[in-house]
Amino acid sequence: MKKFHLLYLVLAFICITCEKKGNFTNESLEESLASKGKNLLNIKSLSGLYYWSGGKKNTLEIDSSIVIIESTSDSTSFINAIKSGLNKDVNAVRLKKQNLFLLRSDQIVASIGNISAKGLSVSAIHASYKFGKSLEMIPTGEIVLKLKLGGSIQDLLGKYSGKAELVKTKKRNKFTIRANNISDVLDIANQIYESGKVEWCHPSFIVPIVRNSNDTYYSQQYYLNQTNNFDINAPEAWDLLGTLNCPIRVAVIDDGVENHSELTGRVLSGFTPLNSSGLGAPTSSSAHGEAVSGIIAAKKDNNSIIAGIAPNANIIPVNIFYGFESDQDIADGIEWAWDEGDADILSNSWGYGVTSISNPGYDDITDAITEARTLGRDGKGSIVIFSSGNSNSTINGVSFPANVNGVITVGAVDRNGSIWNYSQRGPEMDLVAPSGNVNLNGDFYTIDRTGSSGYSSGDYMTNFGGTSAACPQVAGVAVLMLTANPSLTEAQLRSILQSTATDMGDLGFDNTYGYGRLNAEAAVRAALPSITGEPNYCSTTSFAINNLPTGATILWSVGSPATITGVNNGNTVTISGGNSSGRTLNAQITTPCGTLNIQKSIYMGVRTPSNLTAETGSSWGVSRVHLSFLAVPTAVTYKWYVNGEYRGQTTAPSITLLIEDCGVENTVEVEAINSCGTSSRASVQVIPWCG
Fold this sequence. Notes:
It is built from 13 helices and 35 strands. It is α+β, with helices and mostly antiparallel strands. Strands 1, 2, 3, 4, 5, 6, 7, 8 and 9 form a nine-stranded antiparallel beta sheet that branches. Strands 12-11-13-15-16-17 form a six-stranded parallel beta sheet, with helices on both faces. Strands 30, 31, 33, 34 and 35 form a five-stranded antiparallel beta sheet that branches. The N terminus is likely disordered.
């Protein structure tokens, strides 16, 4: 009740001051308090302080620390009046280009005299909300919704004539409406959702989001490669790709990206939801997105400072930190990234919530992510990657939107493979990657905005870290995977990243490490085309290409005496002849990303056993010899001979023999047998131990 009283007193003071200065002149002071206070009090007493998202009802409370003032005065004059005589950093902003102004309640008393003295009007005061006692949720007056198929927005709005109006028609049956009175926004949104005519519907809120924050320094980039192997195996992945090069597009949804010598020509035109001319560029000293982009796409082998994981990737900046973005603005940014921006990959080193309260989420953002995953890349799906968050000490679980179904969620381990104490964790975890500490206390090398605009005075930084640095590593590896095979679907990319991770912690999946540490080499190898077919054959066999990218062409070749029967440029090839010592089958594959050669060793007949070794001594006994060799693929049995005399057969590639002539050199031979016949014999000279 104290908080109700505080806000009511603030409201009362505004009304009294407005009365004294000539505003509300048609009302007595009592009428002013009654009419201006009544709305707010009615809101407080409503039982319907909630909104729907994720199919559940999320209860809200009045936030007594914030009020929203409605005024018809010029916005610049109004804000200047609020700030006049106060600290220049006073929090007063215009909401969504409407005549609504957000103000902290402890600033109102100091500001109201300035507002009144300048003859500016205050026509209404509205409440703001919070979730879980601490998470600010500031209503914008707008409502976002997605109609069910066959629904009509005109029919839906017919019930709210005079109360709400359509302000934006979006793609795929989504709309934005605005309540004429911001205090009605919860009631209208809830009634629409509860009508059953929509997939989802909720008010658009402004809620704090946080950044999960031969080259000179290549040796310092431990996450790429280091001697203790707690890295992502980047050099091995690069080797697998050879000269393949594709302009994969990565949307860095962050605080903006600008050009840099390490990104020359690869920072494309982007998007800023709150500024149509912003094009994704950073503002002020924002540099988080720049650092993230360097991890993904800095040049490699250019005798510069660092190496990016995917040095040919294009960066599409989406700036969602322009200032006071609502969930609708962020959803618009995500939607633009995969739709207008044609992004193959969406990298998100940010999240909601730095308190102990888990954010309940917003359906418009969830829907934008789901559409990216299912509709992006012409229906193959764009992969969406989020950092898990840096607030493990205060938040139980990973932060929204990292907990949205289908998102690749990434935590952070240190350079020795231990989970960082800040790294958020939970059942939604997918991967971890090496990173440094948080709050610019890390040891992670990447680029910075040029000059004094960024974190440092130079063009590079050496102290990045957090899950912010882990997330873009996965984005970079996803670029390499799509370079290996541009036809992979989002589901295939996600499955490969999970299945090829280096297991850490408990065996198999766990809530701390997810499926394990990112493994670029294994992921790229699994993404590449490969030759399938049994390498051992008797006379004739066929091979095919698995994971062949759409539009790729193939040219087969094989070493003599094996030959290709029929065509040599189809997805399958038939091989005849050869020998048991093996030949190399080569497939030259030309894809949209370049030319790749993949090979497979093939054998006709039965291979001769190899690496035959003999052990003697007391551990085996007098006159006894233990023999073993590498198993021969497809062999059914092995026959053994001592000095030309048959001594038995085994199904395993080993045997212990009794040889009476101890101290004397003996010849032991073995041959392999399968459906193709019998191999040549392998032999070894042995002298049994005499004791």
